[in-house]
Structures are given as C-alpha cells and as structure tokens.
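quick one if you have a minute, typing this from the bus. below you get a single protein, a line of residues and a line of whole numbers that encode the local backbone shape. could you go over both lines and see whether the tokens make sense for that sequence. anything you notice is useful, everything is just below.
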Amino acid sequence: MSINDTPALLMMQDNSKPEECTICFGTYDEILLRPRSLPCGHAFCSQCIERAIKNGQVACPSCRAEHIATTATQFPINYGMEAFVRKLASVGTVPAKRSQDPPIGIGKKLRSLVQEQKSNISSLITSCEDTLCQLGEYRGQLRDRKTRHHQLQDKLDGLVEQNKTTIELLEQEDTSVVDMTAKGEDGKKRLQVMLGNLEKVYTAHEVDTIADRADQCHVEVKEWLHECQDIFPDFNALHTSVKVQETIKEAQEIITPEAGAATLLVHPRDSATNIMEKVWDITRGVPLEEITIEHLRRMSEPVKRLVVAGQVVAVEQKQDGCHFSKITLQDGELFLHPLLRQALPIHARSIQHSDIVNILDYSSTMAFLDLAWAGSTKGRVAIWLTPDTGLARQFVLLCMGLQGPTYTNTKFFEVEDKDQPGECMVGGDYETNDGEGGTSLLPDLGGEYRRSSRAGAVGSWWGPEDHRSAQFYILTRDLPEGQWCSRVFGEVASGLDVLRAATSHGNITEVTVVDCGIVLPL
C-alpha cells in the first residue's frame, strides 16, 4: 500500500495502535521506521514517507493535504511518539524486537567490534539526517528566493540583467545542493545496509570484511559531512540575492530609504555552526535590526531562533542611558523580563518597549516569579492577576520594572503558620528586604478586592495607605473552614509546588526572586 493510495481505507482503520505506522503497520523505531510528523499534524514512518515523495510533493493519506518535500528528512522526527514507543516496550505492551546483538558464537572481542561499528554507523546516520534536513530546508529557501526574483524581474526592466545573474548564482547553488543531497542519500543508504549486515554476521571473516567496508564508508560520509559544512551556503550567491532584492525594493518604493540602506554582512565560515544558521547570518544578520509586535505574533522560525538565542530585547532610552528587557520563549509562551539599565547583547534585535506596553491588558495579566535558594533556581511561579485593582497594577509595575524598582533580587522574609493550615509566604519588600519597606508606586490602589481561603491566593496584608503596600503574601495551604484572607488580587496558576518547597527550606530569607516579569499577551 502506498501513502498516496486508498485514503478512505486509512481514514477508517483502527487508531488503537498509535505506535504503528498507519501505512505499513510497522512499529515505530529509532533507526529505519522513525516517526515523522507532516505539517498537517499526521505522522508516518520515514520509509513510507520516502516512498511516497513524488515530484517534490507528498499527500497526507489522512487529510489529503499536500506538502512540498524532496526527502523524508525534511519532516521533523516525532520525539514524543518515540518516547511513547520506548515506554510501551519497557512495560511489555509492544512486542520486544529480536535482539540486535550478534550471534552468541562470536567471541567477546568481535562482539565489541560489532557493537562499536553499529554505534558509529548509527551516529553517522543521525548526522546524515540532520544535514539532509538542513539541505532540504536550505533548498526550500533557495526555491523561494528564485521565485521572488522571477517576480521582481517581470516588474523592473531596469534590473533584469542583474537579477538574471543572481538567479544563475542561485541555480548553481541549488544544483550543488541537489548533487550533495544525492551523495548524502547514497552514503546514508550504504550505512543502513551495513547496519543490517552486522545483524547477520557469524564468522570472524565476515566481521573483518564488513568492518573494512564500514571503515571506508565511515571516512567517505565524514568527508561528505565536512564538505557540506564547508561549501554551504555560498556567500556570494546569498549576499548578491539580498543586495539585489534591497535595490529592487528601493526602486519600487516598497520600503523607506532608511530601511533599505546598505547593510554590512559578515562572511560566516565557522564550521561549528550548521548550514541553516549560516544562511540566517548571511540573509538576516543585521545588528540591532528592529523587530515588531507582528514579528513576535507570527513567530516565524528565524524570529524564534533569535528569541531562543536571547537576541531579542525590548529597548527604552532614558536620561541615564539605555534600558532593556529580555524576551524569552518557554513552552510556547513569550515572557517579558524587567526593564534594567545594562549593555545590549551583541547582535541584539530590538523592539520598542513602549510598543509592548501599549498592547498590555492589565485586566488579564499573568506575571511570573523565578525562585532560587541553596545556590540554584528551583522553579517558576505564574500568577494570574485580578482585573481592575490597584495592587494588581502595582504588582505588574514591579515585575516589569517600569518605574525603576523591581521584585528581582528581593527575598521572602517570613513564613506564617508554617506547616499549619493557612501557611503563607511574605515578600515583596523591594526597599529593605526585611519587611520594613515596600513603598507604593501608585497614588491610587483602590479596586474591588476579593477574599479567599484557598492555597495559591496572592494578596496584601497592608492597606493602600500603608508604606509597605508593595509587599505581598501567597497562601501555600488552605485556611481552616470559615476563615479567609482579604485584599486578594491574584491567584497562583502554576508553581504552587515550588512555593511549598520554599516554605520547607530551613531559612526562608534565603529564598530569592532571582527573576520576574509578565507573559506577553500575543
């Protein structure tokens, strides 16, 4: 059965065995039948996807969505499914595979040699898959660039010859990628064949023969991997592509002269970086390039890489110098950290801090506190803040550092009713860190506050007029029935376990808020 055949039958088949590929019914593994996810969300084994690719396309048998690909390695490995299969195997749900160890008749030394060869080959297969995936992604970018250049060529007669030259460079680069991809596919297949042959060896002569072949293939594949890293991407082709597109956009008045100004690009030839990272350095590597709210909302792969690398910051210029907030990504959510006066990271991309503040909805803000003690960060506490209360707005200001003071580096200074019902932690003294400070940042802290007796409630002991109103408490255990706390302005959404672990620490004054901020509502 082909992946492109009989979709109706596949849609009706039993889904009670997710550990099996729905095309060949083989159980997923981590060598030949690795599960890969298509962009539509459905997963199939690598071999079935490879067989299904025709003319650079593959149609999902479950939903018939068409995807562009030249090799199965362009689709990401479903590591969650692999972990699921391993777990099933560990509890005996998946039939155990026949041992891959060589026959018992082979001596211990030969057995060790076989295992070493298998390990080396498996490692090389993984390296092949990673590089082939990069080549596939790179070729997709090259194809997109060629398409854009063809469109621009039709509109701008004055730049036709220069644009054709750029297309030729990209065509040559594309041809090189195709050739290297074919070479890599051939090397990967030979490695897979050798891996299979090692399962069937019975004599020392067979082991020696396969080992010799494996050593030769090992050298060839290693050379291919080094060659790919060395020659791709072609700096001249991509740099010319970038410059021609900038020139054409200027001529069409699509962008402003300032945005289209000449850019200094660095020639990346560091073999320690992978192909797609070097592509990004060439095509988008502009120091201090501004990122917009829309960039963060769309979160394209290049922008995501910048955020993960810590190169996206929210900047605000003040009289005493440049202040910026880190922007980080965790579990699919963007976090804005406090605004601090510090030097910008090298090659940082900036967004105006005021642009972020303008989109905040204080009626539905989630803040976070990162707690540490005993020399290490223990976890993150996320807090939903109650709408339309002055104390909640003040809590946001102190998490963001908008007016200077911040909860960063403040300590918890008290645990009340420790190990008893109503146990709570008290902190937030950003001035003296001992419970005597915490001046209000807002003139009006009024609002409709609620009462709560449940663990996770966040509130203030002190009224709006008190000089300690920035202090807060967090209930870590429910209060006895009939009792409640007042001036509650928030509730712990996650991290209550971190707070309870903190209360169990021997000295609560060692528990520190090492970082804080808010979740960006994008």
